[in-house]
Amino acid sequence: MNVVVCVKQVPDTSDPDVEVHIDSSGKGVDESKFSFVINDADNYAVEEAILLKEKHEGEVTVVNIGPEAANQVVRMALAKGGDQAIRLDDERFAFSDITATARLLASAIGDLEFDIVMTGCIASDDGYSAVGVTLAQMLDLPHAAMVKSVEVIGDNKLKVGRELEGGLLEMLEIETPCVLTIQTGINEPRYASFKGIRAASKKEIKVMDLEATGLSEDQVGEAGSTAVMVEYSVPVVGELAEILEGDAAETSVKLSGILKEKGLV
Amino acid sequence: MNIEHGTFVEKYDLLGCIQCGRCTGGCPVTVRTDLNVRLFVYETVDDDRLEALSEKHEIWDCTTCNNCALRCPKGLDPFEVLLGLRSMQVEEGNIEPTAISALESVFNNGNPWGKPRALRCNWMEDIEGVEKVRILEKGEKADVLIHTCCTACYDPRIIPLARNLVRVMEKAGVDYGFIGEEETDCGSEVRRLGEEGLFEMLDEDNTELFDAYDSGRIVCLSPHCYNTFKNECENIKTPVLHYTELVAEIIREGKLELTGEIDSKVVYHDPCYLGKKNKVFDEPRYILGRIPGIELMEFNQSREISLCCEGGGGKMWVESESKEQRLSETRILDAKEMGADIVAVACPFCLLTLEDALKAKGFDEEMRVADILELLGESI
Amino acid sequence: MHDIFVLAEHREGELREVTLEILTLAGQLAEQSGGKVTAVLLGSGIDEYAGKCASFADRVLVVDDPMYKDYNSAAYQQALVELIKAEKPHLVLIGNTGQGVDLAPSLAVELDVPYTSDVVSVTLEGDKPVATRQYYGGKIDGRIEFKDADVYVLAIREASTPAGEGGKSGEIQKIDNPVTTEVTVRKFLEYVEAAIGEVDITQSTMLVSVGRGIRDEKNMPIMEELAEAMGADLSASRAVVDAGWLPTDRQVGISGKTVSPKLYLAVGISGAFQHVTGIKGADVVVAINKDPDAPIFQYADYGIVDDLLKVVPALTEKIKEMKG
Fold it and tell me: Per the CB < 8 Å rule, is B104 touching A194?
């Protein structure tokens, strides 16, 4: 069972104290105050890939699009049990949309021998939930998104569970090779010890630039994109809690009204 | 996992053990967990059993309070055996998700709290009576280089400790400075969670960082950082002090006047890493005694036999499954019975655990837990 | 040429609300462009849904075939490709749901048309759609512009447009199944409900979280009633779990779980750093606490400063009333 797993390095902006500021171009954000981590869902994808390898043998190939600093997340994946890695790195890849990103991944993955390609089901920075399924179609492979369970049930057959709203699982059979986008909580990602990461730095990370991908300049970056993010803006939100005034009868009316308005009840 | 023959025997001098049981006999967590440290020392002699022993959940119950080491007639550090077993689990990647987050954050951000490095100095803004907290340039000279402690940089409950330390330094005219955003985790909890490799990296980083400044002394806010820099980072040549040692000194020298009265009965809780581990017992008591109005009391269990609060040894990230009363609650009940108004501490972890216990017991109206730095802040 | 397709979404005998929301949105856009709204309904034995969709659309295209009884992306995609090629709508709107994210991206690739996802609002500028979506967990908005195309596929976030009243009476048009070969690469097997009694709070969309402010175990039932009325799961701070009033797997925070619900209602939780670190992923945080200085109010969007024993029962009543 050979598995290719795609990992993305993202800024950790979930902390309430971390502010996101738009940079002067209006199309990027000031990243100088961010710390960077592996995308959460990708972390589960790495674990699932390694669990499958441990159970059914084979190799795990880690694929990343990112600068040299992204080696940090690639090395973690290698330390946990990945066998080799590819990092797609070229300035001309910047501002790639869903389609251009998937096209880049397809160029690196298309020639590999694999049974399953895994990606996280969503990236915490752009929230697209789309690259994996786009990639599947580009590779002309079947896919399943938001996967919460994977079981090998035949030579070229998997039983997978997709997580739907309310925790409902949609069980299905899918032929391999295929693409699965992995949901968080499918497993318990292991820890990559520092010694492990250091040892993994001996494993090769193959770096591919635009020429190596065999793609042309108008197939990547903004030129190769069809749905382009052209401008960031600051949403209007309050800082401190809005305190609802009044006695219990009044505040409960106000709060239930707000919850209804927000579609929460 | 590849274990060389005699790994533990040699590393922890296990054949020196006479199995007298004084370690387990004095272990404070035995009242709420199944941990038997003597048995681990006995069993880890057999290499073939290490793997299985490392899988026992009790190895995570130890708070590394140092009681067993203090009581050992042969001078061993029995709890270190448990850390060795923890490190085997860490190598396998098999640890609690909460501990994984903490360790990954130390690796990525230099602190275990999942906070960006760039926010490390946010606590320094707008301190009463302080124009600007001094951050040193590389190579710059200062008598005292202060290491803040990650918890004091980021935890809103602990930040006031750092801010008060700055006020005290300014008031006493001490030539002090901070490293700034580059300051990094001391590695104390990293090592105690069994992450030896990461600890080695931090040891190297911190040693190099301290070397880059021309400081006479390093002063730590937390006893945990203090202990690590003083005893575990062998290449740090600059003398390392806990803040209570420095403050006691400047009070003795007449540089710091304490005028504000705190009219309260105060009982001092010895933090394990300050007291039991480093024998700093008198300085905190001296400082408290110099604050006008304070009537100082003593716990029955104080100094060498002080009761651990269970905040150290990586326990901030690995909860015990035990439903028995927490040691911090026992401590608070004792203080209540003595009629204390304030439980004074000199450690961020003790402050968090004891204050939690105080609230859990519902005594927050009549009693409080305060770090000596907070009391100093009220008195200067 | 300004027509809008909306894919109807149904599951286990129910037309999902998101369908009506997106039909409402499509209606607003069509009013502007002068186009027609077509609901596309794939299923088996779905006359009832067709009727419902008809009151929100100008037309309902119905393909009734056992092949579509339960959702299968491979079958759905083939059918949609055929219908879109034949009908040439200008916009195709699909819910950004567990179904939509499994279908819309590959559909767009096969059609070779622009696509974007999780759209919170969409406007028409001239002939072309312009989408707004969120980045960095909602901390930044972004404007998406598309390259020129005949068709655009957009996945729309649930609850981003409230469903309107309907009131149209669209024509229901049943057509033959455009897919004539059996789909084999992927097969639906069954739906499995989340095991009862095993709540995974990391996956909960609504959490009512209890802190030490509850004081006593005898007060727990009012929290349970509130959670039940809201359709939320119960979680807790460490103090409550320590006390044994809720199991360990309900604990939120550094030493517990990290949660990311749409709503986190913190009741009697002061908001210690070790706790709030666990709620970083929550969309909306509401805090009820009698201490106006409790740090939880720094993290909350809305706050009530009052005794929870007074507020919680009142709130439960209001929510029950509202839900009828």
Answer: no
Return the pLDDT at A238.
45
Question: Of A14, A166, A258, which has the smallest distance from its Cβ to C302's Cβ?
Answer: A258
* Closest residue on chain A to C118 (Cα): A128
B114 touches chain A (CB under 8 A): yes
Counted domains in chain B: 3
Which of A194, A195, A201 is the best residue to mutate to test the B interface, defined by the most B CB atoms within 10 Å of its own CB? A194
Return the SS3 of C200. coil
pLDDT band at B357 (very low <50, low <70, confident <90, very high): very high
Instruction: Clarify whether residues B239 and B315 are in a common domain.
Output: no
- Chains linked to B by 3 or more Cβ pairs within 8 Å: A, C
Which residues, 6 or more positions from C78, have their beta carbon under 8 angstroms from its beta carbon? C178, C179, C183
Residue C256 has pLDDT above 80, yes or no: no
Does B139 share its domain with B247? yes
The two three-digit tokens of residue B317, written as one number? 């990230």
Residue A122 lies in a domain: yes
Which single residue is written with the structure tokens 């209001």?
Answer: C318
Q: Which domains does chain C have, with CATH numbers?
A: 4-174 (3.40.50.620), 201-323 (3.40.50.1220)
Are the beta carbons of A168 and C194 separated by less than 8 Å? yes
Question: What was the ipTM of the complex prediction?
Answer: 0.91
Measured CA to CA, the distance from residue B306 to residue B302 in angstroms comes to 4
Is the Cα torsion angle B348, B349, B351, B355 positive or negative in sign?
Answer: positive
Enumerate residues 18 to 47 of chain C having a beta carbon within 8 A of any beta carbon in chain A: none
Task: Clarify whether residues B218 and B271 are in a common domain.
Answer: no
Does a structural domain hold residue A234? Answer: no
Domain C-terminal end among B228, B251, B274:
B251
Provide, as residue numbers in chain A, all residues whose Cβ is less than 8 Å from the Cβ of C151: none
Taking the model in full, what pTM does it have? Answer: 0.86
Residues 6+ apart with CB under 8 A from A211: none
Assigned domain for A120 exists: yes
Closest CA to A118 of A29, A37, A201, A48: A48
Mutate to test the interface with B, among C274, C279, C291 (most CBs of B within 10 A): C274
What range does the domain containing A166 cover?
Answer: 3-219
User: B2 lies in a domain?
Assistant: no
Mean of all residue pLDDT scores within chain B: 95
> pLDDT tens digit string along B138-194?
999 999 999 999 999 999 899 999 999 999 999 999 999 999 999 999 999 999 999
Residues in chain A with CB shorter than 8 Å from the CB of B99 are 191
Residue pointed to by tokens 């959940």: B57
- Residue B149 distance to chain A (closest CA, Å): 19
Domain count along chain A: 1
Chain C residues in contact with A136 by the CB 8 A cut-off are: 106
Choose one of B251, B269, B303: the last residue of a domain: B251
Residues B181, B277 within the same domain: no
* HSE-CB of A231 using CA atoms within 13 angstroms: 6
Q: Which residue is associated with the tokens 């069972």?
A: A1
Question: How many Cβ pairs closer than 8 A exist between chain A and C?
Answer: 261
By CA distance, what is A142's nearest residue in C?
A: C185
**Shortest Cα–Cα distance, A71 to chain B (Å):** 13
Q: Which of C237, C251, C254, C280 is best to mutate for the B interface (most B CBs within 10 A)?
A: C254
Domain with B12 in it: 7-91
C-alpha dist (Å) from residue A180 to A3, A131, A146, A167, A176: 10, 11, 8, 18, 10
Q: Cα(C176)–Cα(B255) distance, rounded to whole angstroms?
A: 93
- Does B1 reach chain A within 8 Å, measured CB to CB? no
B269 lies in the same domain as B327: yes
- Most C CBs within 10 Å, among A180, A229, A230, A233, to test the C interface: A229
